[in-house]
Design a protein that fits this description.
Length: 289
């Protein structure tokens, strides 16, 4: 199946609004990642699974007037809404498959992907595409979740069950909500160097908009849960009600763990290239360090 069919969440206005909230919430941590590489003026970079363009805009700020950002996503409706705002000539929006971008091989200084393996799985395939795109010495930058730290203490067993369902709903469509935990072993198998990782967890007041992420997932995953016989409407309604009530009580919410990883690609001759290298967009010269 294609990544579009595998995606477990509904493609609608509510999901697009969730992506906006999510991107804004994690923006400071994304900036810290880009500073850690660091992304430099003149670089040619790609953001695979670009979503709402928050990351692409942050990358544009770093690549400067001589740089370029290619933003790829397979949500055509979302990209159509964003095109009117994407007026920067350095930003190239592409509707396509992040796992098979068709960009020219070894043409980019850095490639970023966030929350791609979580909904779609296929972490090794994603990493293979990232390495295919990178010049020798180019940087891969990945961000994936791990659910263990995610907690709504006031919800008790209702949260334990809902978190279990969220994990199962992603898995039912081939995803892995704990993809962040797989990054160390996945990168250990690759021809990369200077591997670095960081784990980020936030504690929020229950009134924070991002504290409602489990409810957003419950709305969007309900069809998957029903179709996969993981839960019926009665149970889902009961869990949603319990989480809603918990979020009105005093006390905090702990986010899932965001696992950030970055590493430098080795020489092209040592990289396993198995994908085709035809291109619908030639990113031009780059300046990898």
């Amino acid at each position: 199946m294609t990544a579009a069919l595998d995606y477990p969440l509904q493609r609608d206005a509510a999901e697009h609004a969730r992506l906006q909230t999510q991107a804004a919430f994690w923006s400071t941590d994304a900036a810290a990642l880009f500073d850690s590489v660091p992304v430099a003026p003149g670089w040619q970079v790609a953001d695979l699974g670009c979503g709402t363009l928050h990351v692409a805009q942050a990358l544009l700020d770093r690549v400067g007037s001589a740089g370029r950002v290619i933003a790829i996503d397979n949500d055509a409706a979302l990209l159509q809404r964003l095109r009117s705002d994407a007026v920067d000539s350095r930003l190239h929006l592409e509707c396509g498959d992040a796992f098979d971008s068709r960009l020219r091989a070894h043409s980019l200084d850095a490639v970023h992907a966030r929350f791609m393996a979580a909904p779609c799985g296929r972490l090794d395939a994603l990493l293979a595409e990232v390495l295919r795109l990178l010049r020798p010495g180019g940087w891969l930058m990945l961000q994936e979740p791990q659910a263990d730290s995610w907690a709504i203490p006031a919800a008790g067993e209702a949260w334990t069950r809902l978190k279990q369902l969220i994990r199962a709903g992603f898995e039912a469509r081939g995803g892995d909500f704990d993809a962040g935990a797989k990054l160390p072993s996945a990168l250990a198998r690759l021809p990369v160097s200077a591997v670095r990782m960081r784990q980020v967890v936030h504690t929020l007041p229950s009134t924070h908009p991002y504290a409602r992420l489990p409810l957003d997932f419950a709305r969007s995953l309900r069809p998957v849960w029903r179709a996969s016989h993981l839960a019926d409407d009665s149970e889902i309604d009961g869990l949603v009600g319990a989480i809603e009530r918990a979020l009105t009580r005093p006390g905090g919410v702990t986010t899932f763990t965001l696992v950030q990883a970055w590493a430098k690609a080795q020489a092209a001759s040592s990289m396993p290239i198995t994908r085709r290298t035809s291109s619908v967009l030639d990113p031009g010269p780059a300046h990898a360090s």
